[in-house]
Write a structure and sequence with these properties.
about 100 residues; alpha+beta; 4 strands
């Protein structure tokens, strides 16, 4: 957990230095579409700096509930690829189903 924290801190600091806001949620980051390449590069840099190795990073798109004007908000998530436990997969599947029901 300490390494996750150092990686997230590295990414947030680096992106802030470049005036590019990111939202950190656990070990994932949400950002605007146009800075995705920079964020992905910064995440890989951070992992290499903190953990001393390179790991693949997964990217997926999602849609958040509507904004104040009623527009759907698109978010892109970047997350280090890691093995998922069966319990985690079931929890994630349940969350996606319940979330889909709330959004539609």
């Amino acid at each position: 957990m300490a390494e996750d924290s150092r990686i997230a801190t590295y990414v947030i600091n680096k992106m802030t230095e470049n005036n590019k806001p990111v939202l950190c949620i656990h070990d994932s980051f949400i950002s605007e579409i146009d800075i995705m390449f920079m964020l992905k590069k910064t995440m890989m840099e951070a992992v290499n700096e903190v953990a001393g190795r390179l790991i693949p990073i997964d990217q997926y798109d999602d849609y958040l509930p509507t904004d104040d004007n009623g527009n759907k908000v698109r978010a892109v998530y970047l997350k280090p690829v890691q093995q998922q436990t069966t319990q985690y997969k079931h929890g994630l599947e349940y969350w996606r189903k319940t979330r889909a029901n709330r959004i539609s």
